[in-house]
Every structure is written in C-alpha cells, then in structure tokens.
Specification:
Helix content is about 60%, strand content about 5%. By secondary structure, the chain is mainly α. It has one domain. It has a two-stranded antiparallel ribbon. The protein starts with 5 loop residues before the first helix and ends with a helix.
C-alpha cells in the first residue's frame, strides 16, 4: 500500500468530476437562449460509486458529459432552465469546496506525521 489510500484517489477523482460538471453547467447557462440547445450534465458521483462497488481503480475513470433529454422543451427547442442550472452550479460548488477541504486536511495530517 502506498502513501495515499483509495480515499485520496476518490477525493481527487471527485474533484476532477466536479470541475468538469462546473464547466458543463456553465455552458448550459451560456446557451440558455440558444434555439435547439439541449442541456448536458456529468454524473461523476455514480461513476465513482460504481467503480468502488466493482473494485475497479477510480484513478482511471473518464467522466463524460451526457445529454439530458428529460427536461421540458421550450418553443425554440431549448431545455435549459437558468434557475435550475444556477441551483445545480451552487450545489456543485459547495461539493467541490467540501472535497477540497477534506483533501487539504488529509494532506496536512500526512505533512504533520512526516514532520513528527
């Protein structure tokens, strides 16, 4: 076993997935008035959970945006709700900041242990 356990790998991959989701959600907001635009999202949490359940290495996950056809369309064929996207952006930002705080705390503990 190396210095970093699976928890650190999960934290890093979750931060990577949250960062990609932030870009995708921001792109949805930017295209809220684009006729025919279909919103996308990134479900990195399910991908990480599935990898952990299957014993697969989480550091080899590739997150991909998925088109969301479940949201209702407006008359111009767009399915982006700015309010919904802003809510998802806020939630995602809080998640990212939480993951970052946990990762920093874990690294600080390791640093303190090395200094002792």
């Amino acid at each position: 076993m190396g210095i970093f356990d699976v928890t650190q790998s999960v934290l890093q991959e979750a931060m990577s997935g949250a960062a990609l989701r932030e870009q995708v959600l921001a792109n949805n907001v930017a295209n809220a008035n684009t006729p025919g635009y279909t919103r996308s999202d990134v479900d990195f949490q399910s991908a990480i959970q599935q990898a952990l359940a299957n014993g697969a290495p989480v550091d080899q996950l590739q997150f991909q945006p998925q088109t969301d056809n479940s949201a209702p369309l407006t008359l111009d064929g767009n399915n982006v709700s700015v309010d919904g996207e802003m809510s998802k952006l806020s939630e995602n930002t809080i998640l990212y900041q939480s993951l970052e705080g946990i990762a920093k705390a874990r690294l600080k503990m390791l640093e303190d242990a090395v200094k002792s």
